[in-house]
Known about the structure:
By secondary structure, the chain is mostly helical. It is built from six helices and three strands, in the order H-H-E-H-H-E-E-H-H. A hairpin with a 7-residue loop joins strand 2 and strand 3 (109-113).
Amino acid sequence: MKNRRSETAKPRTGETASTPRPARRSLAIELLRAREAVMSHFRPILAAHDVSEQQWRVIRVLSEEGTLDATEVAEKAFILPPSLTRMIRSLEERGFITRQKDEADGRRVLLRLAPSGQAVIDAVMPHSLRAYAEIDARFGAERRERLLELLGELAALKADRPASE
């Protein structure tokens, strides 16, 4: 990695501490690049099953967690609530999920994976596991596990308020 400066490097002549880092050394951009590299293994699988990344996250969350309300699905699948509302309609129309009002609280909408949604999970999962095996073969399973730990620690630093406050 020639010509890459460390995140803690002192400013070069003419730079100040407030000078932006080159884009190739931005944590946010590197995370996006890594996400794109990882997703390049999974997008063709999802496309072959006519499921978007966001739809996959929803049905996978419901497969793993069981019945959830829409707010919980949005949080666990990292989907904005307005996007989830549109997606629920589409997934329900395709028969992948069912939606019902919570009997205890009529304002809550409960979502559950339907048998055809589970069929998508069952069809995609073997391909997904092969993709993970490919990534592990190239990157290393131990490195991937360590990266997941580090990313979890980084995610725990989420700010509760804007930095300008």
